[in-house]
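ZP: hey, is the magnesium ion complex queued? I don't see it on the tracker
AM: it wasn't, my bad. submitting now with these inputs:
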Amino acid sequence: MKNMNCSKIICIGQNYPAHAREMDLPSSSNPVIFLKPPSSLITDGEVIEAPAELGRVDYEVELALIIGKRAKHISEKDALSYISMVATFNDITARDVQANARDSGHPWTFSKGLDTFAPMSVPVELSSVGDIHDLDLELCVNGKLRQHGNTADMLFSPEKLVAYISTYMTLEEGDIIATGTPEGVSGLNDGDFVEASISGVGKVSNHVKRI
Ligand code: MG
């Protein structure tokens, strides 16, 4: 993705209870945090390249928050003023690789960080979007609805996430927080067409190539 000044993509795991249940994961009292490299970003119309030898590769529709100014030790009350834009994000995941890493106690960075594994729509101003605590998320594969959720179901709100993360990691202008996915994840096949959308925010559509 061009013209994005992004030092890091911070992703939140298990932020929707129904998705944590479908993955058979225990609940966590703090946000589950991992990173994707900015090199994984692509935009609408680019191709998701999923290496065949890595096994199952999943989609995950998520609301992305884009940081507008440096944030360190930000309170929940002030957090929204540090989010300048939002976008629709698809947290592509090499699920078998992730599961193997989890089982062996290894980091699962690799399963999340491949080139093309972070499709994101063109960001829009936060002020142009309705209440970010009540946005419908949808994901379709080949025109069939696979995920449908609402940001109201997040365990940790955008404000809580900015406050928690900025206590420990400085957020820079252009950094992205991917806020987790609702239930309904499954694998992608060669030739699939994936459309992730959020009401009032935008849509990112990508073909899948198993390479
Ligand atoms: Mg995710």
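AM: back. The helical segments are 17-22, 76-79, 95-104, 109-112, 158-168.
ZP: great, adding it to the tracker
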